[in-house]
Amino acid sequence: MYAITIPEPGGPEALVWDEVPDPVPGEGEVLVEVVASAVNRADLMQRQGFYDPPPEASRYPGLECAGRVVETGPGVSGWAVGDEVCALLAGGGYAEKVVVPAGQLLPVPAGLDLKRAAALPEVVCTVWSNVFMVSHLRPGETLLVHGGSSGIGTMAIQLAKAVGAKVAVTAGTKEKLDFCAELGADILINYRDQDFVEEIERATDGAGADVILDNMGAKYLDRNVRALAVNGRLAIIGLQGGTKGELNIGALLAKRGAVTATSLRARPLGEKAAIVAAVREHVWPLIDSGHVRPVVDRELPMSEAAEAHRVLEESGHIGKVLLIAP
Predict the structure, then answer these.
(1) Are 234 and 212 in contact (CB under 8 A)?
(2) SS3 153
(3) Closest-CA residue to 68 (of 118, 22, 18, 125)
(4) In 23-47, which positions are buried (b, 16+ CB within 10 angstroms) versus exposed (e)?
(5) How far apart are the C-alpha atoms of 30 and 43, rounded to whole Å?
(6) Is 120 helix (H, G, I), strand (E, B) or coil?
(7) Is the sign of the CA dihedral 146, 199, 221, 168 positive or negative?
(8) Which of 112, 103, 97 has the alpha carbon at shortest distance from 65?
(9) Which residue blocks in 228-304 are alpha helix, DSSP H?
(10) How far apart are the C-alpha atoms of 147 and 27, rounded to whole Å?
(11) Of the N and C termini of the chain, which has fewer Cβ atoms inside 10 Å?
């Protein structure tokens, strides 16, 4: 088969479409013929040499895919050859075939094109696990999403609105904020010329955000704590603004707040399977009914993964960038 390899870390040009051995499913695994994958910020970090996959995972980038089951390994039940699926991966999505633990498979939602299903697993599992399973967002509460026009952000807006929450977003252009508003965002903050702490305080009559989904890390840590409501929960899922920041514990104590930081990739298989099962139970009906949808900015051939990485680095996109297998 062919896959995107990274012979040496570097810029987008470090991604090489090359012939590699076919993977073989083991106990509890299935082999999926990939129709499409999607690009995530973590893929850019891996390409640069900063985010290696877990030891047992594929060395090729790609944290999600959609395709068809072509082989099942020993001990697999509930899935059969020919099933159309999408999958949460620890790596290997930028390839014509990938091995997936059976617990990380999801059926393609009703009425959704198979290619577009590749835009779902990573963002839905990230949002559901952090905003709902960890931070327990409830109806009537306020969620602040940094990077509201990203793949994660566009999904977080829709899921939060689906449960009856109020949604605030930050983004860097009017076009992106307008799109967030179309998805249901209530409070629109342009981080280039507005202070999100002041805007959240104003929009909530001083109460603050009950849950904050943060992709920036250190750069926003202090301001995120200031923007929290009493009993607020800050969920950090990205480090675009650095890894080391100073936490004002006194301010956190005064708000009886909580800070969590999670990633999906390195979690044990059992934890991933539990998240995927929760997503299938709670989110898939919303997608089946059309109340929630993946947002796709563009599709590119998988062999042009370098261009897809450039698109993400330039940050002009809205939603997900898909890679289409040959």
Answers:
(1) yes
(2) helix
(3) 118
(4) bebeebbbbbbbbbbbbbbbbbbbb
(5) 23
(6) coil
(7) negative
(8) 97
(9) 249-254, 269-282, 284-288
(10) 39
(11) C
Token duo for residue 93: 């999505």
In 3D space, the residue among 84, 117, 35, 162 whose CA is nearest the CA of residue 294 turns out to be 117
Strand 29-38 to 97-101 pairing: antiparallel
| Calpha distance 78→183 (Å, rounded) | 34
238-293 pLDDT, tens per residue?
Answer: 999 988 999 999 999 999 999 999 999 999 999 999 999 999 999 999 999 999 99
Helix (H, G, I), strand (E, B) or coil at 136: coil
Question: Alpha-carbon distance 40 to 63, whole Å?
Answer: 7
Q: In sequence order, what are the residues at sequence separation of 6 or more whose Cβ sits closer than 8 angstroms to the Cβ of residue 165?
A: 137, 138, 139, 140, 141, 142, 143
The DSSP annotation for 11-68 comes to SGGG-EEEE-PPP---TTEEEEEEEEEE--HHHHHHHTTS-PPPTTS-SS--SEEEEE
**Cα 303–307–311 angle (5° rounding)?**
140
CB atoms within 10 A of CB 18: 12
276 phi and psi angles, rounded to 5 deg = -60, -40
φ and ψ at 17, to 5 degrees?
-85, 110
Phi, psi of 64 (to 5 degrees): -165, 155
As a whole number of angstroms, the distance between CA 319 and CA 39 comes to 10
